[in-house]
Specification:
Length: about 400
């Protein structure tokens, strides 16, 4: 029987990779719906590739254009995810939640209700609202698989283990394009340099997060929430090859690590074909790579963002929303050449320490709207700080 699949955020990087995997194995899948914000051209191509009958367009103008185009064809066009959910009459086997940013939170919570398994590639939703996601997962008895390469690796390594036996978990990071650059050279580095990741093909924003290593801060927060493991058991190591994605040391003395090519096809493919014997084309084992793995501790004077980990607690609070929003806004300003590279850290730190936000440090998020309203407050304060 074909697996019924929905891909939310199908035109983004993770979504596009998911669509390609489905297209190459179409005999195994029945794609029920795909979604985009406003990338009409791409989603129309995807609809033909995977023979989908339902597409969701969130942008109003793009939706109206698309609806007119398909007025007399057998493809249903929905204005938003809520409209699609109302019409859905069957249980979905697997939903890929790949809408970027907190715009993906509500669709993710809805997808959990109608899916047997969800793969979540949206770090913002997990970081800011894991308690809400976990509640829906438990309530609907929905299986969850993290898609980010590091978290998929940890999940794979410990899914059959007793968490009490874990001594340490290591997340690896390449160190980005500035790993071997002196601090004096990167303070005022242009965005064109920061987005040149040495290993991964990624969007501009996440590439800058890799350059500051703020992505590793978020990954530790994400891992602590997903696996409910004390934050003090996590450690970050520089691994320029980006081949080993996670290492787990157990109290028994056994150390496991998971390695794969720098290609998101692998965690996505394995999350869809969970426990099934299917083959994906991948690189052969490279002895040169294995003999030169190289690990080192990050330089906290260069990668100052790592210092934010000391603010993190072993519980869900609205502080994470403040941190991730401040960073996102400041990275966007940096990409627009309105602030310097060094300002991303200093202004993020200044923002999270503002007196107005202190009361959120111990407050648990109650609903998506509370998170969205806080995001607006943080953005407003960032604009004030930067005189925009």
């Amino acid at each position: 029987m074909k697996k019924k699949i929905v891909v939310l955020g199908s035109t983004g990087s993770i979504g596009s990779t998911t669509i390609q995997i489905i297209k190459n194995n179409l005999k195994d899948f029945n794609v029920i719906a795909i979604s985009t914000n406003k990338n009409i051209r791409k989603i129309l191509k995807q609809a033909k590739l995977v023979r989908v009958k339902n597409i969701i367009i969130n942008d109003k103008k793009s939706y109206l254009i698309c609806r007119k185009k398909f007025n007399k064809k057998k493809i249903n066009v929905f204005r938003n995810h809520s409209d699609f959910k109302k019409k859905l009459k069957l249980k979905i086997d697997y939903t890929m939640c790949a809408i970027s940013g907190l715009e993906g939170l509500k669709p993710t919570l809805d997808a959990i209700k109608y899916s047997s398994t969800v793969g979540i590639a949206n770090k913002e939703s997990i970081i800011c609202a894991w308690n809400l996601i976990e509640k829906e997962l438990n309530k609907n008895k929905t299986k969850f698989i993290p898609i980010d390469s590091e978290h998929f690796s940890i999940w794979s390594l410990i899914k059959n283990e007793n968490k009490n036996n874990i001594e340490q978990i290591i997340l690896t990071g390449s160190g980005g394009p500035f790993l071997n650059k002196p601090i004096s050279k990167i303070k005022y580095a242009k965005a064109s340099k920061a987005i040149k990741h040495p290993n991964w093909s990624m969007g501009k924003k996440i590439s800058v997060d890799s350059a500051t290593m703020m992505n590793k801060v978020f990954e530790v927060i994400e891992a602590q929430k997903i696996f409910n493991i004390d934050k003090n058991k996590f450690r970050i190591l520089i691994h320029p090859k980006s081949y080993v994605h996670a290492i787990v040391k157990f109290k028994s003395g056994i150390i496991k690590f998971l390695a794969h090519d720098t290609n998101m096809r692998i965690p996505i493919f394995n999350s869809i074909y969970l426990n099934e014997r299917n083959k994906i084309n991948s690189e052969k084992i490279n002895l040169s790579t294995l003999n030169n793995l190289n690990f080192s501790l990050p330089n906290k004077k260069k990668f100052t963002s790592i210092n934010f980990l000391k603010y993190i607690k072993n519980k869900n609070t609205l502080f994470e929303t403040i941190l991730i929003t401040a960073n996102d806004e400041l990275v966007n300003l940096y990409l627009k050449d309105k602030i310097n590279f060094k300002d991303i850290y200093s202004l993020t730190k200044k923002t999270v320490r503002l007196k107005i936000f202190k009361r959120y440090f111990n407050k648990k998020p109650k609903n998506p709207d509370e998170i969205i309203n806080l995001v607006k407050k943080v953005r407003f304060k960032i604009n004030q700080l930067c005189n925009i």
